[in-house]
Write a structure and sequence with these properties.
Number of strands of chain B: 11
Number of helices of chain A: 0
Radius of gyration of chain A: 13 Å
Order of helices and strands of chain B: EEEEEEEEEEE
Oligomer: heterodimer
Helix content of chain A: under 10%
Strand content of chain B: over 45%
Largest sheet of chain B: 6 strands, mixed
Shape of chain B: globular
Distance between the termini of chain B: 36 Å
Shape of chain A: globular
Radius of gyration of chain B: 13 Å
Chain lengths: ~110, ~110
């Protein structure tokens, strides 16, 4: 089944404790992206990657890091999480030049 | 400041009514997408419009891209309870579709 998977689905952590949210797709898509969703703000793009080893900032990249060492994986790293990073995070993938983005199920993060 | 202004933010209607959701911007987009999101899930693409003035229909849903490619609308005819959900518009800037900007979303509730 073609899908985007994220882990973990739920995470509670404390300020300053490094964490990684994994994202993996099995559709051989070149494009992958991370978003955060907050009430009243819709989805805001954090980082995206057009291909392996190619990443670029979205609209809200501060406090986040990403890497794209393999085509299928695009982890989101929070080196020192803060409470304002409490949010619902979505990973998405699509073919380069295509417009159909497939979203993962989301990761709900709470930073205390 | 939101690059894509979506209105209304909330819509509560009775089954059988018609409705329109608007997505407006002062920026030009190379394409505009509409997504629907259900609680606990990621957004699912409904349609993509790429040409100014383009109209696409998906059963009871009609999507239109403005002539200047700065705005779009989603019209639902004879709404049904199954249409309930969060509707999001998203604009792509440039030809690579890499950088995607979402509107705040419209929460639609259709009462039986």
């Amino acid at each position: 089944e073609a899908q985007v998977t994220q882990n973990p689905r739920y995470l509670i952590t404390v300020t300053g404790k490094k964490l990684t949210v994994t994202c993996s797709q099995n559709m051989n898509h070149e494009y992958m992206s991370w978003y955060r969703q907050d009430p009243g703000l819709g989805l805001r793009q954090i980082y995206y990657s057009m291909n392996v080893e190619v990443t670029d900032k979205g609209d809200v990249p501060e406090g986040y890091k990403v890497s794209r060492k393999e085509k299928r994986n695009f982890p989101l790293i929070l080196e020192s999480p803060s409470p304002n990073q409490t949010s619902l995070y979505f990973c998405a993938s699509s073919l380069v030049g295509g417009v159909t983005q497939y979203f993962g199920p989301g990761t709900r993060l709470l930073v205390l | 400041t939101q690059l894509l202004e979506q209105s209304p933010q909330f819509l509560s209607i009775q089954e059988g009514e018609n409705l329109t959701v608007y997505c407006n911007s002062s920026s030009v987009f190379s394409s505009l997408q509409w997504y629907r999101q259900e609680p606990g899930e990621g957004p699912v693409l409904l349609v993509t419009v790429v040409t100014g003035g383009e109209v696409k229909k998906l059963k009871r849903l009609t999507f239109q891209f403005g002539d200047a490619r700065k705005d779009s609308s989603l019209h639902i005819t004879a709404a049904q309870p199954g249409d309930t959900g969060l509707y999001l518009c998203a604009g792509a800037r440039g030809t690579s579709y890499g950088k995607l900007t979402f509107g705040q979303g419209t929460i639609l509730t259709v009462h039986p």
